[in-house]
Design a protein that fits this description.
This protein has one domain. About 70% of the residues lie in helices and about 5% in strands. It has helices spanning about 15, 20-30, 40-50, 60-85, 100-120, 125-145, 155-170, 180-200, 205-220, and strands spanning about 1-5, 10. Helix 6 packs antiparallel against helix 7 and helix 7 (about 155-170) packs across helix 9.
Amino acid sequence: MEQFIGDEQVVSPLETTQPKGLRIAAHVISAVFHPILMPVYITYFLLFIHPLVFDGFPDLGKMQILATVFINYALLPAFTVFLAWRLKFAKSVFLRTQKERLIPYALTMIFAFWCWHVFNNLDYSPPIFVTFLLGSFIAVIIGWFANIYFKISMHGLAIGGMLFFLISLSLTGEGSGGIYITVALLIAGLVCTARFLVSDHKPFEIYAGLFAGIAAQWIASVL
């Protein structure tokens, strides 16, 4: 785990005392379940795995929906971070400090809003999908405001939203089952554990992200 004092980077004893294989696994899990990829994974799940949400949609239409979500939630935010790094607004693409995260958060809010707005105004969009996009947008807003006061975990935000959404879908939607809840809990446990091991976050920041992500999807579900 890396911590920063002023402009100096300090390696926390927690990461250095862990076995190398465990640290590598934690980094891989953190990368695979990166926050900008979670909306893409959930969209893919709704499009191609869940039996009812997009039932009857043509394959081309499904791919266009997936591409739209990928562009707005993964490609454009990643490009924003890259530009922030190249323009010296951030020291690295890992956005180690709260200040470095302000611009990417602000622009990602725009991308997330646009994605939700587009699908919200399409008559054929399944309501549960639109609700998920709204919750993701709200999560980015919460993350931006929280980041003013402390470095809330982006992984926590994404995983919390995923957890609430899949549990809610399993309990209230047809064609769902307990397997989705099991998988969601397993992923949440793995990612949060990985962040405890190899991130520079305090435990509070990870828990705050997790519960903020849950709250964001809950707010979207009741609006």
